[in-house]
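Researcher: We are triaging several targets before committing to wet-lab work. For this one, the compound of interest is pyridoxal-5'-phosphate. I'm pasting the protein sequence and the ligand SMILES. What I need is the predicted three-dimensional arrangement of the protein with the ligand bound, expressed as structure tokens, so it can go straight into our comparison scripts without reformatting.
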Amino acid sequence: MNFNTALLHQSFGGDKSSGATLAPICQSSAFAHESAEKLEAIFNSKAPGYAYTRISNPTVDSFERRIAALEKGIGAVACSSGMAAVTMSLLNILQSGDEVIAGSALFGGTIDLFGDLEAFGIKTVFTEEVTAESVSRLATDKTRAVFTELIGNPKLNVTDVRAVSEAAHKIGVPLIVDSTTATPYLINPFDHGADIVVHSSSKYINGSGNAISGVIIDSGNFKWDCSRYRGFEEYKKFGRLAYIAKLRNGIWRNMGACLAPMNAFLNSIGLETLGLRMERLCDNSKMLAEFFEADGRVKVNYPALRSSPYYELVDSQLKGMGGAIITIRAGSREKAFKLINSLKYASIATNIGDVRTLVIHPASTIYTHSTEEQRVNAGVFDDTIRISVGIEDIDDLIADFKNAIDKSENGGN
Ligand SMILES: *Cc1c(COP(=O)(O)O)cnc(C)c1O
């Protein structure tokens, strides 16, 4: 099956019992069964079935199976948000005293989360770029995971997944990749050696900005050493499914990070057009980035431009596509604000992956809790504007940005 066919048909054939072409929204908290024995069997994973929506639900199940297949994983667990997915992917394997190696150019919420984890004895060692070299250099006997974003939001640095996963495996730890901004359209990180993938499916998978959700997918390839990863002993019997089984029966279930059935439904619908949207979004982004570069009045950063240091990696690892986020530097904070306020079509909003173009000034919003050093490491300057490119007609987008740059340069109205 090719990509767009797989989005519709892989691990999905509608609801067999009713003939519904979509997985129905199973908006029920609990599921009743004919006998105490039956519920006992379900509770103890000895029979298939549902008991309680915090633990599993048919609509959520359908979404999870489709995502797992799309990412070529052996299983997936859906979460209430992308942040819940990031948190649970780590807490499933970490304990007090452990260290994580992570990029310093991560999504703002994830950087804040690593700060929160310090209170629980989990330390994060940040590196400007997650590379094979930095992983080997920063590894200690306490390192238990390497965490990176595939295309950093908003620095737009690209991780060489093959090289980094090899370095992580050399020190006996898994590589966890946040692939939100790349999406399965650009890459299946498992093909390049990643062990766990997380997505904020609120973004490109949903596609229309109508439901928050996250998902964790396991490749099943990492061999968990029970002497280093606490609690894996009792999940050994699940073989390659140990990570997913532990997650489902442990921290994910007990912290109540489940996805609501309605949001699973909305994300499943969004998923079906991921290929069409990404094709258009990547085309639009490339043309808009090329316009900025040719115009020359703002400084543009987009990984699929020849001028980007990541151009070759984009070519070899991401099929030549750079995703749908562009950052530009307007020259000053005042010019950046003026430019943003002069746009006709772009909504001023803190989101990415919507069908409509969105813009934000990261320094005064997403990174308002960060230190100056954290901001600079994340590629956020006082004059940076992040653009989440939409599916509008490119001529309209270019005309809109050209007009806004004119206004910001002239200081007029
Ligand atoms: C948005 C985002 C998150 C957090 O996802 P939510 O669904 O907002 O909780 C995590 N990582 C990246 C790269 C994101 O863009």
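Researcher: Any quick observations?
Model: The longest strand covers residues 143-149.
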